[in-house]
Automatic annotation (TrEMBL):
Bind 1 Zn(2+) per subunit. Binds to RNA polymerase (RNAP), stimulating transcription from principal, but not alternative sigma factor promoters. InterPro entries: RbpA_sf, RNApol-bd_RbpA. This is RNA polymerase-binding protein RbpA. Coiled coil: none annotated. The lineage of its organism: Bacteria, Bacillati, Actinomycetota, Actinomycetes, Micromonosporales. Forms a complex with the RNAP catalytic core and with free principal sigma factors. It comes from Micromonospora arida. The keyword Cell division does not apply. Belongs to the RNA polymerase-binding protein RbpA family. Its cofactor is Zn(2+). HAMAP family: RbpA.
């Protein structure tokens, strides 16, 4: 019997995480990063968290650092790739088809078809 656990964690009707009953916004800090292409990246994170030293620039994908005068160099030679591109790198189209067929079979079993 094939493993039917291809699709995880997507229970129909599962409730979203409930915010605190008495909702108080957690303290935040604004952090600015600069990439080598002079893109400014502003992020907002929890105040009690140490900002990560690097942040991927959302515009060009290069790593951005806290020091505007000295942005980090390219740490990886690859250009920016989408999540899908990484998935395609890890799995062939055939593997994708097999996973899809497996997931559909599991779905049909659950529906009693
Ligand atoms: Zn950039």
């Amino acid at each position: 019997m094939p493993n039917g656990n291809v699709i995880r964690g997507a229970r129909v009707g599962s409730a979203p995480m409930r915010p605190d009953e008495r909702h108080q916004p957690a303290p935040r800090q604004d952090v600015t990063y600069w990439c080598r292409n002079d893109h400014r990246v502003d992020i907002r994170i929890a105040a009690d968290v140490e900002p990560p030293p690097l942040w991927d620039c959302p515009r060009c994908g290069l790593p951005a650092g806290r020091d505007a005068q000295n942005p980090p160099g390219r740490v990886r030679a690859e250009p920016y790739k989408s999540h899908l591109a990484y998935v395609k790198e890890r799995r062939t189209a055939e593997e994708g088809e097999a996973l899809l067929a497996e997931a559909l079979a599991a779905l049909r079993r659950r529906r009693g078809e």
